[in-house]
Amino acid sequence: MPEIVTASADFAAAPISLWRRTTNSLVTLAAATAVILVLLPLAAVFGYLVYKGIGSINWAFLTQTPKPVGESGGGMANAIAGSVYILLIASTFGVPLGIGAGIYLSEYGRGSRFGNLIRFTADVLNGVPSIIVGIVAYGLVVLTQGHFSALAGGVALAIMMVPTITRTTEEMLLLVPQAVREAAYGLGVSRWRTTLSITLRTATSGVITGVMLAFARVAGETAPLLFTAFGNQYWNWKLGQPTAALSLQIFTYAISPFDEWHRQAWAGALILIVLIVVSVGAVRLAANRGMLKGAN
Amino acid sequence: MVNRALGAPRLSGPQRLPEHAVASDSKGQVQPLIKAGDSRWADNAFFLAMLVCGLSVLALVGLILYELIAKSSLSWHAFGWRFFFRSEWDPVNDQFGAFPFVYGTIVSSILALIIAVPLAIGVAVFITEMSPRRLRGALAFTTELLAAIPSVIYGLWAIFVLVPLLRQYVQPWLARYFGWTSLFQGPPYGIGMLAAGIILAIMVVPIVSSITREVMTAVPQQQREAVLALGATRWEMIRTGVLRNARAGILGGIILGLGRALGETMAVTMVIGNRPEIAKSLFAPGYTMASVIANEFTEATGDLYLSSLIEVGLALFIVTVIVNVLAQLLVWTVTRGTPARSHA
Question: Does residue A31 belong to any structural domain of this protein?
């Protein structure tokens, strides 16, 4: 029908006004500027970390304990080891609890009111400021033991790890098709065996992703360690004694008035960020490989 | 999507059937497939173990609340509600009032949101609606990388890079042209409320922008096509078709960012100046609830001092919980309608 075609052609010919076109371009420009403004500090932080940090990383820094004020040299070996130690303590509590709670939510608590309550509480726990977690770990462990300790630091970080691990584990287990579980039941496999050897195992890579993310999240935490692990100028492997941590050491050195300590703070920060970015990057890469598509 | 993603369950090779699943024994006599009660106790024990793990999440939050309430009762009985409206903070004479910290927390967080929100929404709009498809993933990843940098490293960077920059260039310029607003007056120390607001803004951007991206993606594609078909430009399509539908979720993202800003400790402690004063100027030093705990907790001698600090913590906890719950609910109102990304 020729009339209709003509009519629509007339309609389409109406030009978009200059005002609307200009607004459109301006907004696009503004959005692109926002991206640049946000990427700028990112580049600046990483640039300065590398620029200031790399010169101070040497063998002594990685193998020695801090020297007293005024003497140059020394390193953060005890703090690096201390961070790893505290993270290990945190994982021994946090990882099983988090995975267990995740299994409960996906295998038993799906859609139930009680499950929703736990899910919601986990999200609340996720938003609790880290300094508050520090206060609680102080009350629970430090006051009971009578002194600051690696254990207290580990407990504080464990509390922070649980909600992240719980929620990712749950999401990953929900991705496993119901048919897989039914196949296992059909073979007469009991429910707990199915959950552990079939469902959890199918979702292993996703669950590990969650654990790594929780790791990365707490690895740089400082606030909850201030009055739990407390810091230490020397080596310590005792559970019940104050322990150095990389993040604490960076904080102490950064607010100190000594140039030598500032230098070491940058070096420590570079090591910390490399550890975190490598773990997050590895997870991201694994996710993009397709093992976990649909999970992100 | 789910099936392609995970493929078949990755079982290692052909698995042997469990003994009790075999239908007949060697003599050909039919056996029951599953011996009744065979694994019932194990199943129950496993269920209980997982239930305990789940309950531990509830217990943790209960424990936090209990610890904070129990240990702050001394200060509560001494000062009551007035605690939050008094300005003295005098450990020597056992006089405690949290108003300067409440004020500092609110001002620094609001300042952070004023800077961060337009940037974060701009970034989200650019990534979801404007960027070339190829750049999309990389941009999303790099902006989220901002969230992976620990607070203490932001603080370190702020002390040695941001603060000198503010002191030498930004603050004199602001004082010259905007000094009349009385927001930008006084000596440019660098350290102070403005530095805290800026560093908080940098930390809040990735949160707000990732939530905004999530809710914008949740807006159905047909909305966009429909608005474009009416002859809208791209911006008109984004404004009327996408942002308007996602606004509740975006608000949720902003409030979630607020929650993060309120509780953020280390970076703020390192640059805000830590003086319990209430000043009009953003150049002046201040103090926040989180940073007073970080700075004074280990030095707090005297039960009332410690108890007052914990009461500050309790207030911070309650506020962040309320803020986070509100944010969750708002985000849900937008994303609820879309198919859940995980289903069995």
Answer: no
Q: Please give the residue that has the higher pLDDT: either A9 or A211.
A: A211
Structure tokens at A176: 């496993």
Q: Which domain holds residue A111?
A: 71-291
Q: For the range B42-47, what are the long-range contacts, defined as Cβ-Cβ under 8 Å and sequence gap of 24 or more?
A: B42/A190, B42/A192, B43/A190, B43/A191, B43/A192, B45/A192, B46/A191, B46/A192, B46/A195, B46/A196, B47/A108, B47/A191, B47/A192
Which residue in chain A is spatially nearest to B61 when comparing CA positions?
A: A125
B161-205 tens-digit pLDDT: 999 999 999 999 999 998 888 889 888 889 999 999 999 999 999
Question: CA B193 to CA A35: how far, in whole Å?
Answer: 25
Distance CA A133, CA A85 (A): 19
Q: Residue A1: inside a domain, yes or no?
A: no
**Measured between CA atoms, how close is A241 to chain B, in angstroms?**
16
Instruction: Tell me if A177 and B3 make a contact (CB, 8 A cut-off).
Output: yes
Please give the Cα distance from A222 to A220 (Å, whole number).
6
Strand positions, DSSP E, chain B: 89-90, 95-96
- Count CB-CB contacts under 10 A for residue B67: 22
Judge whether A107 lies within some domain.
yes
Q: Which amino acid is at B28?
A: G
Cβ atoms of B152 and B203 closer than 8 Å:
no
pTM (two decimals): 0.87
pLDDT for A233 equals 87
Report the candidate in B220, B233, B236, B225 with the shortest Cα–Cα distance to residue B337: B220
**What is the CATH number for A131?**
1.10.3720.10
Is residue A60 pLDDT above 60, yes or no? yes
How far does A59 lie from chain B, in Å, by closest CA?
A: 22
Residue ranges per domain, chain B?
A: 79-335
Report the helix count and the strand count for chain B, using DSSP H and E: 14, 2
- Whole-number pLDDT of residue B37: 54
Question: A79 or A282: which carries more pLDDT confidence?
Answer: A79
> Low-confidence residues of chain B, pLDDT below 70?
1-38, 336-344
Q: Are the Cβ atoms of B67 and A140 closer than 8 angstroms?
A: yes
pLDDT in tens, A158-167: 999 999 999 9
According to CATH, the topology of domain B79-335 is: MetI-like fold (1.10.3720)
At residue B14, the pLDDT reads 41
Size of interface A-B (CB pairs under 8 A): 313
3-class state of residue B300 by DSSP: coil
Residue A111 forms contact with B (CB below 8 Å): no
Residue recorded with tokens 């990755």: B10
